[in-house]
Amino acid sequence: MKIVVTSILVDDQAKALAFYHHVLGFQPKEDIAMGRYRWLTLTSPNDPNGVELLLEPDVHPAAKTYKAALKADGIPATSFAVRDIQAEYTRLHAGGVLFTQPPTPMGPVTVAVFDDTCGNLIQIAQRH
């Protein structure tokens, strides 16, 4: 088995696409109309044929409650690996990204957490 798609619940697909593409730097892969919503995926520019991140509308009745509970507890919805966490933190912070946790060493990794503007906290992590 192999992971090919993973999803993140977002409150607005267009806003999420703008953030994940223009701010974080992920590249759009699929954009297929599905009625009111879209099958909207992005990939890492370093691995365009790798795992796709699906920007999933948070329309399920439990989705908003689930997202709010995670965010209230400071739990990231997902984690992205970075090569240089300090450089990514500096780049994103300068671009207006709101961090809830600056780069913090935690054993074999250093992590930072930010708000994705779509209802989620996202972690970036660098292995040592």
Describe what this molecule looks like in 3D.
With 128 residues, this protein is an alpha/beta fold. The protein has one domain: Roll (2,3-Dihydroxybiphenyl 1,2-Dioxygenase, domain 1). It is 24% helix and 41% strand. It has three helices and eight strands; from the N terminus they run βαβββαβαβββ. It has helices spanning 13-23, 63-72, 85-94, and strands at residues 5-10, 27-34, 37-43, 52-57, 78-81, 99-106, 109-115, 121-127. It has a four-stranded mixed beta sheet, covered by helices on one side. A four-stranded mixed beta sheet has the order 5-8-7-6. A hairpin with a 2-residue loop joins strand 6 and strand 7 (109-115). The longest helix has 11 residues, at 13-23. The protein is globular. The mean pLDDT is 97.
Oligomer: single chain
Domain count, please report it.
1
Strand order of the largest sheet: 1-4-3-2
Number of strands: 8
Q: Tally the helices: what do you get?
A: 3
Radius of gyration: 15 Å
For the largest beta-sheet, the strand count, sense and barrel status come to: 4 strands, mixed
The CATH topology comes to 2,3-Dihydroxybiphenyl 1,2-Dioxygenase, domain 1
The ordered H/E elements are: EHEEEHEHEEE
Alpha carbon gap, first and last residue: 28 Å
At the first level of CATH, the class is Alpha Beta
Shape descriptor reads globular
Give the SSE map.
Blueprint: E1 5-10, H1 13-23, E2 27-34, E3 37-43, E4 52-57, H2 63-72, E5 78-81, H3 85-94, E6 99-106, E7 109-115, E8 121-127
Parallel strand pairs: 1-4, 5-8
Antiparallel strand pairs: 2-3, 3-4, 6-7, 7-8
